[in-house]
Amino acid sequence: MAGWAQHLAGIKGLVLDISGVLFDSGGEGGGVPIPGSIEAVKKIKASGLKLQFCTNETQATREKFVKKLQRLGFDIVVNEVTAPAPAACRILKERNLRPYLLVHDDVIPEFADIDKTNPNCVVTGDAADNFSYKNLNEAFRVLIGLENPVLLSLGKGRYYKETDGLKLDVGVYMKALEYACDIQAEVVGKPAKMFFQSALREMGVEPHEAIMIGDDIVNDVGGAQQCGMRALQVRTGKYRPCDEQHPQVKADGYVDNLAEAVEVILKQLHK
Amino acid sequence: MAARRALKAVLVDLSGTLHVEDSAVPGAQEALKRLRSAPVKIRFVTNTTKECKRDLLERLKKLDFDIQEDEIFTSLTAARNLLEEKRVRPLLLVEDGALRDFSGLDTSDPNAVVIGLAPEHFNYQMMNEAFHLILDGAPLIAVHKARYYKRKDGLALGPGPFVTGLEYATDTQATVVGKPERTFFLEALRGTSCAPEEAVMIGDDCRDDVGGAQNADMLGILVKTGKYRPGDEGKIKPPPYLTCESFPQAVDHILHHLL
Predict the structure, then answer these.
(1) Count of A–B CB contacts within 8 Å?
(2) What share of chain B in percent tops pLDDT 90?
(3) pLDDT in tens, A192-237
(4) Which of A122-126, A266-270, B221-225 has the lowest mean pLDDT?
(5) Domain B89-176 CATH class label
(6) Which residue on chain B is closest to A132 by alpha carbon?
(7) What is the ipTM of this complex?
(8) Please, where in chain A does CATH 3.40.50.1000 lie?
(9) CB contacts, 8 Å: A127 with chain B
(10) CATH top-level class for B9-47+179-258?
(11) Distances (CA, A) of A222 to A138, A204, B4, B5
(12) Could you give the angle at the alpha carbon of B95 between the alpha carbons of B92 and B99, nearest 5°?
C-alpha cells in the first residue's frame, strides 16, 4: 500500500481542485468528466467527510461554472466552491481599488458592483482570447501610470489542459506585466495561503486535518503543503510524468485519478 | 584593466548616436568621414526588432551617412546567425518589415521560436503555438528583452514581457541575441579579424551599449545624445571608459588618443 495512505488518522475533510480532477475543460458542452470522478464526489459526501472545492477557474462566474458541473453530472453547489473572483472582489472593496479588468468576458459579471472608473489597479485572470497585445498593453499603461501599481492576479498557473491540448494560463501574463513594470503581483487564488485558509474556514477544518487533491504540482500540491495540509497529485488533467521529479515540490502521494484517491482514503478511514 | 592593444575596430550605435529620429546628430556625417580615414574597421550595431537592414540603410542614406549594408549588424542578424548555426526552422514572431532579414530560411514545420516585436502576432493563439513548440524542445530565441518602448501614442510593451511569460510557462531560459549580450558584440566583430580588446563601442545607452561592450572586453564610450539622461554614466560598474557630448567628440578622442 502507498505510504501516504498509512497516516490518515484524524483526516476530517478533503479539498478538491476542479479542472483536471473532476473534468477536462474545452470542446462542445464545455468539457468531459474524468472517469470515476462523479462517483467519487458522491462517495465523499456519503462518507461524512467535509468537502470543499478550491478552483482557480476564472473563465466563468462561480454560478455558471457550478451549473456546468451540475450539467456534467456532479453533485456540487455554489457555496462549496472557493473561487478567486469573489475573493478578489472582497479585496477590491476593502482597499478601495478600482480595477482595469484583464479577464475573460464571462467572468465580468462577478465584478458588476465594483467601481471600474478611473482605474487604480489591474486585475488579471485567465482571459484566454482576451490576452491580446492591445488589452495587455492597456493593462500595462494603467500600471506604469500609477505611483503605487497594484496588480491582482487570479492564480498564477503556467498552463492548463483543455480537451484539445495545453493552454497558457494567467501566470504567464502576470509574469509579463511584472517584468514590464518591474513590480510583484499579489496572487488571489491558489497557491496563496489565504486562499486555502478561506476554503478550510468554510469547512471548519484545521490544515492538518485536510487533504488537497489536485493536478497542479506547484499551485495545488505545493500551495496546500505550504498551508500545512497534506496533498496528493492526480495523474489526470495537466499532470506530466516529470512532475513526480519536481525539484521543489514533492506530493505526499501520487494517484492515478480522483477515484483511486477516494477509494484508498475511505478504505483507510473506515478500517 | 588588461593591457590594451592598438585600436582596430569601432562599433557605432545608430538610433540616438548617429541620428535622433529623422535628424542626424550635428556633425555626425563629417565625423564618420574623419573616422573612415583612419585604419579602423567600422560596424554599425543596433537592437532592432522591426526594421530590416535595408530599411535602416535607406534612412541613413537619406541623412547623408556614408554606410554600406554589410557594415550593419543588428539583433535580427544575430538571430539569423544563431538559427543557421543551430540548423533549425523558426516560427518568426517578428514584424513584417523584419522578415526580409530572414529570407531564405526554411520556416516550414518549425522547431524553434524567435520573438521580436510583433504586436499583431502576440495574440493568445500564437503565444500558445510558441508555447507548444518550446514544450516540445524548440529553442526560444529573443531578439532582445526590452520591457517597453516609446510610441507616438505613448508607451507600449516590448518583446521582453512576452519572452518572460513564455520562459515562465515552459520553465526554460531564452537565448537573448541582442545588446547587451556579450555574444552580440563578439558576433558583430566577426569578419573584421579584430579581437574585442582592439575594439571600442560608441552609444547612447549606458547599460546596453557601453556596459554590454565593456563586459565583452571592449572599451565603451557614452554619448550624451538620444536617450541619454544626466547621471546615466553612474549606472554601470566599471563606469564608461569615456563620456562625451556627442558622436563627433567621440571620434576626435579615438583619432587623438586611441590610434
Answers:
(1) 85
(2) 85
(3) 999 999 999 999 999 999 999 999 999 999 999 999 999 999 999 9
(4) A266-270
(5) alpha beta
(6) B123
(7) 0.86
(8) 3-83+190-269, 84-187
(9) 124
(10) alpha beta
(11) 33, 22, 53, 55
(12) 60
